[in-house]
Amino acid sequence: MIVVTGAAGFIGSCMAAKLNEMGRDDLILVDDFSKEAKRRNWEGKRYVDKIHRNDFFQWAEKHYEDIDFIIHLGARTDTTEFDYSVFEELNVSYTQRMWTFAARHGIPLVYASSAATYGAGELGYVDSHTLPYQFQPLNPYGKSKNEIDKWVLKQQQQPPCWYAFKFFNVYGPNEYHKGRMASVILHAFQEIQETGKVRLFRSHRPDFADGEQLRDFVYVKDVVRVIYWFMRHLPSSGIYNLGTGRAESFLTLATSTFKALHLEPSIEFVDIPEDIRDKYQYFTQAEMKKMRSAGYGRPFYNLEKGTHSYVTRYLAKDIVY
Predict the structure, then answer these.
(1) Residue 76 confidence class, pLDDT cut points 50, 70, 90
(2) pTM, whole model, 2 decimals?
(3) Using CA atoms, how far apart are residues 317 and 173, in angstroms rounded to an integer?
(4) Is residue 92 over pLDDT 90?
(5) What's the CA gap between 256 and 140, in Å, rounded?
(6) Are 12 and 172 in contact (CB under 8 A)?
(7) Which of 111, 171, 216, 288 could connect to 72 by a Cys-Cys bridge, CB 3.0–4.6 Å?
């Protein structure tokens, strides 16, 4: 069996869909399934059982011999929450328990790290095992992910193979419940439907024009494809970036959304909210040499093609993956 945590959430539910596509129905879905807003993400998936995250370890100690792989994607991901204790339980303590369980029983493990660990990118975006001790994340979410990366790298007892993926700016189907934390593509689509235009953040730095802030946007279909490849091929354990290796602008994102809807762009610039202005990243771009050296050679969706797929196949039809 394959355990998928965060299975009612964005990336976790897409991972379950990918596994179903590949013929794996022997899934144990783990999450808080009481949230009706997420129901569409899991109710159509094929699985053996779904377990509340608080009950997982009690269940797992009785069934560990049947578990082939753990994909731990459950996390609190709100980058505008500044109370670190909110992240400590789910992002740090729960992941430590998952690691310890997997190591004790010899079960391969994937867990979600984040590009938020890189802070403002002062040290670049290289997935080296020496740099986490020097990173200065810009918010408690990024700090929580960096703390677990540092903790993992110090552990003598390890799962037989393990992979921590530093997700960059993931977008795609099944994120409809995320509110303010959903991708800008979802917000752009909704704004176009409501007002006919898209609002983007104005630049507050002289070296970036309005809308030319850059991110490594990665389509969730690529994310789950990478994870599945690692499960199948089992390259060297470690922390890996998971982006495209190409930074693209929010202006490209907005114009691609209009293009997918066969509309002329109408874009307005607004100030970045005060509560996140000094924590705002103007550039992220994954260094992907490590993953390529591990053997993953498939191309990634560029932003225009990924946006077209997301908008036309999912948002416009109001369906999930």
Answers:
(1) confident
(2) 0.95
(3) 11
(4) yes
(5) 32
(6) no
(7) 111
